[in-house]
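Researcher: I'm preparing a figure for a lab meeting and need a structural model of a single chain. I don't have an experimental structure, so a prediction will have to do for now. The sequence is pasted below. Please return the structure as tokens so I can convert it later.
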Amino acid sequence: MNPFDLTGRRAVITGARRGIGLAMADALAAAGADIVAVSAHLEPTGSEVEKRVRGHGRSFTGYQADFTDRDEVAALADRLEYDGRPVDILVNNAGTIKRAPAAAHSDEYWDEVIAVNLSAQFILSREVGRRMVDRGHGKIIFTASLLSFQGGINVPGYTAAKSGLVGLTRALANEWAGRGVNVNAIAPGYIATDNTQALRDDQARNAAILDRIPAGRWGRADDLAGAVVFLASSASDYIHGSVIPVDGGWLGR
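Model: Understood. Here is the structure written out token by token.
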């Protein structure tokens, strides 16, 4: 048997409209999973993620959700449970970033980043995870960050949220590992997405980042494909509370 085969499993990916989430949905569908994509601005039909999933011959469902609204996140969890099939895999990837020096980082910036990147992740994981525990199986994967381990520059809210996700990963794993639910995280390095466009446009910052990456290049969204399929599959059944960096060697430097 192929331990990486996800045929028959249902995977939910938040923040799946573009970037890392899109690549993760594509990879999970290629491995055989049926996909539920969630994003605040997901198109009702014809989205890129829908095209890719259906191109792999997998079923697709798309939902919009505002991850700053706790009630909407809880309602999403209910919808996922009662629309026909249980959730086997939950990839908590939705996120946002606000850049400003700490002394000028507004309450509004802080509240939005913490709500989307941390609070919504907990609420959705709690609601979906409770049902996974009841069934005795499930995979939950968080998208952490290099800034789960480092302080960063001009992103105090993002750093706090991503650091919190690593703690949440371990806390949930401690409670649920013995109940058949794996909770782990992936920490992407510097990936060429919309969130990092400002860094790549800054010539000095771009050069400094590239100089620090042993692999010598920015990551691509599809560099996350192997890690997400591994953590979603039975190949990772004895892995709990771990954080896998996909960073071109940055943390090893």
